[in-house]
Amino acid sequence: MHLRLFVILTLVSNAMMLNPTATKRSATKDAPEDCRSCLVCSRENGCESCPDKLFLFLNREDMRQHGSCLHSCPAGHYGLRGQDMNRCMKCKASDCERCFNKDFCTKCKGGFQLFKGKCLTSCPEGTIPHLTDCIEGCQLSLWGEWSPCERNGLRCGFRWGRQSRSRESRRGPEGASPQCPTQHESRKCRMKKKCPEERRKNERRGERKRGRKQQRLLNNTTATEPPGGT
């Protein structure tokens, strides 16, 4: 009896040693919901190992970190495949939303322009901004005239407004340069504070006011003259 029990225990022990992953999987059956996609998981740190097609993402908060297994890495990270495990690695630049590797950005955060894998606050000389990228090799016409100074569709009645101008793509010989988008710029401008209609109203109001004043002076002069004149 004892010999039979010893043999059974030995077989079970050997099976566990030959397949430790199965043992770890069974240990996670009662783990939290966010451990369901893991190969190895702990209640304190979440996923520690992921299936082949998933990426291990470590979310760090202060001194703690929590792992999860994802199909694609979140913003600011890229997927790095390895022999032992696939991991989500952080992009080097903080202004990069998506990157191909640590140093090459493919999409920038808002307020930045993408140029040759870098996120810039303004496009370098010889390039123009278009959507979220800087385009180089464009041939553009000279700037057009500034538009009238306007605000809310009006050209008077305010102290300040805005005006704009543009320049268009100028295609050279075929294949010499890409077709570039029209470029626009705007600036602050001073408006005429008084509209013509308002100015005319003010002029008429002033004329009436002067007429009333002259009439009062005339009435006062007439009232002070002695009877019979001079």
TrEMBL record:
- State its location(s): Secreted
- Gene Ontology biological-process entries: Wnt signaling pathway
Query: SMART domains of this UniProt entry?
Result: FU
GO function terms (MF aspect): heparin binding
Which InterPro entries does the UniProt record give? Furin_repeat (IPR006212), Growth_fac_rcpt_cys_sf (IPR009030), R-spondin (IPR051514), Rspo_Fu-CRD_dom (IPR043601), TSP1_rpt (IPR000884), TSP1_rpt_sf (IPR036383)
Q: What is its main location?
A: secreted
Q: Where is the R-spondin Fu-CRD domain?
A: 35-130
Q: What is this protein called?
A: R-spondin Fu-CRD domain-containing protein
